[in-house]
Write a structure and sequence with these properties.
The protein is mainly beta. It has a single domain, classed as Ferric Hydroxamate Uptake Protein, Chain A, domain 1. It is built from six helices and 20 strands. The strands form five sheets. A six-stranded antiparallel beta sheet has the order 12-13-14-15-16-17. The chain has a five-stranded mixed beta sheet with strand order 5-10-11-8-9. The protein is elongated and about 105 Å long. About 30% of the residues are buried.
Length: about 375
C-alpha cells in the first residue's frame, strides 16, 4: 500500500518532509518535528522510518493488513476467520463438536472463537468505531463482504478502556474508502460435492456423496464522486446454498437398533424402527455495504456508511432442530441469524461520523497511493 508522507510547514521556518511513515490500525506513531529558521530554499527531509513499536501500548494486539486479507484463502468468505492468526485465539468448542455433514466447512462457524479460553459470548466487534456485536452470541451483528474490509485489529489481552464491554477479546474493523482512481472487482465462487471428501460413515459408492452446492457472486467498486473531495466505495455479495445432510449413525448401528426393537425390547417406546435418510437444507443471503467519505478540509472529514444483510432459510431446515444447530455451526456464517434460529432475517444499519481535528501546526498526511485515512493529533502524534 506504500508509506505515508508527512509534511509540516510554518511561516519563516523550513519545510519538514518525511516520506516514510507507516500508519497501522490502533497504533500511535510519534514524530519529533523540528523546524529550523528558513533559509534560501530550506527544507528538512527525514529518511529514517519511525519506530514500529509503541512503548505506551500495553495490550497484546495483532493487525490483519490488506495484503493478508487479499492473498490468504478463506473457504467460507468470512473475514473473521483471520482472527485465528492471532496468538491465543482458538475456535470455540461448540464449533468443533459439530459432527459430520455435507455442509461442513469453516471452524469459525457459529459465534465462534475464544480468546485465551474465555467465553465466546464475551467478545466485542466494532466496524469503523461503532459497535457491531450481537448481544446473544458475541458474534458480528451484520456480516460484511471481505471486499469492503480494509484491515482490522485483534486485541486479546490488556486492552484499554476504549474496548470496554469485552471481557474476552476485541476486534476493530476498518472498511475501505474510495480513491481518486476508479477500481472495481467482480467475482463468483462455486463449491459443490465433487470437491468434498466422502463422509466417514457414508456408503463408499460415488453416488452416495451428499449433495452440496454453494454459489457466491459479488461485485465491488470504488472511486471519486468529486476529485480530492468526495469518494465512495461499495460492495455487494450473495450466497446461494443448496445441500443435504443425513443421520450421523452408521448403517450397521441402524440395523442393530431395529433388530432389537423388533424383538420386543422396550415395548413402551412409541418409535419401533429407525429409518435413515437425508433431508434438504438451503439458504439465500445478500450482503451489501457502502461508504461515502467527504473531505471538507484537511482537518475535517465526514463519513457516511450503510450496511444491509438479508437471509432466508428453507422451512424444512428449521423443522430439524438438532441437525439444524449442528449444520449451521459449520457453514461459516457468523451473524445474528445463526444465534436466533429464525428462518428469515433482515438487518440493516446506517451510520454517520464527523472527524474534526485541531492541530498545532498545519501538517498534512499524503498516502503513497491512496487517499488519507490517518489523522493528526496534537500536531505531532499520528494515529489511525
Amino acid at each position: 500500500m506504500g508509506d505515508d508522507e508527512v509534511k509540516a510547514e510554518a511561516a519563516d521556518f523550513a519545510l519538514y518532509l518525511n516520506p516514510h511513515v507507516t500508519l497501522a490500525l490502533g497504533r500511535t506513531t510519534s514524530l519529533d518535528i523540528t523546524l529550523p529558521p528558513a533559509g534560501v530554499n530550506a527544507q528538512v527531509t527525514v529518511t529514517d522510518k519511525p519506530s514500529a513499536l509503541d512503548p505506551t501500548q500495553t495490550a497484546v494486539t495483532t493487525s490483519i493488513d490488506p495484503e493478508r486479507i487479499e492473498e490468504l484463502p478463506v473457504n467460507s468468505r468470512n473475514y473473521l476467520e483471520f482472527t485465528l492468526l492471532a496468538p491465543g485465539v482458538a475456535p470455540s468448542n461448540q464449533q468443533n463438536s459439530g459432527g459430520s455433514g455435507a455442509a461442513s466447512g469453516s471452524p469459525l462457524a457459529d459465534s465462534g472463537f475464544t480468546f485465551g479460553g474465555l467465553r465466546t459470548r464475551s467478545n466485542s466487534i466494532s466496524i469503523d468505531g461503532l459497535d457491531n456485536t450481537d448481544e446473544t452470541t458475541g458474534a458480528a451483528r451484520i456480516a460484511l463482504s471481505p471486499e469492503i474490509i480494509r484491515e482490522f485489529q485483534i486485541v486479546n489481552s490488556g486492552q484499554s478502556a476504549e474496548f470496554g464491554g469485552a471481557a474476552g477479546g476485541a476486534i476493530n474493523v476498518i472498511t475501505r474508502v474510495g480513491e481518486n482512481e476508479f477500481h472495481g472487482d467482480a467475482f463468483t465462487f462455486v463449491s459443490n460435492e465433487r470437491f468434498n471428501a466422502r463422509e466417514s460413515f457414508s456408503d463408499p459408492s460415488p453416488s452416495s456423496r451428499l449433495r452440496f452446492r454453494r454459489v457466491q457472486p459479488g461485485v465491488a467498486l470504488g472511486g471519486p464522486l468529486k476529485r480530492d473531495r468526495l469518494f465512495f466505495y461499495a460492495a455487494a455479495e450473495q450466497e446461494h446454498l443448496s445441500a443435504e445432510d443425513e443421520a450421523e449413525i452408521p448403517s450397521s448401528t441402524h440395523t442393530r437398533i431395529n433388530s432389537l426393537l423388533a424383538s420386543g425390547f422396550a415395548t413402551r417406546l412409541a418409535v419401533r424402527s429407525l429409518t435413515p435418510g437425508r433431508f434438504r437444507i438451503g439458504s439465500d443471503e445478500t450482503e451489501m455495504a457502502g461508504k461515502l467519505t467527504y473531505i471538507a478540509s484537511p482537518m475535517s472529514h465526514v463519513k457516511l456508511s450503510f450496511r444491509l444483510h438479508k437471509s432466508a432459510r428453507s422451512r424444512r431446515w428449521l423443522q430439524h432442530r438438532r441437525p439444524y444447530r449442528q449444520i449451521r455451526a459449520r457453514l461459516g456464517l457468523v451473524n445474528t441469524r445463526s444465534s436466533k434460529g429464525r428462518g428469515y432475517l433482515d438487518v440493516s444499519a446506517a451510520t454517520g461520523l464527523l472527524v474534526s481535528i485541531l492541530c498545532l501546526l498545519p501538517i498534512s498526511v499524503r498516502p503513497g497511493n491512496r487517499k488519507q485515512e490517518g489523522t493528526v493529533l496534537d500536531g505531532l502524534d499520528i494515529m489511525r
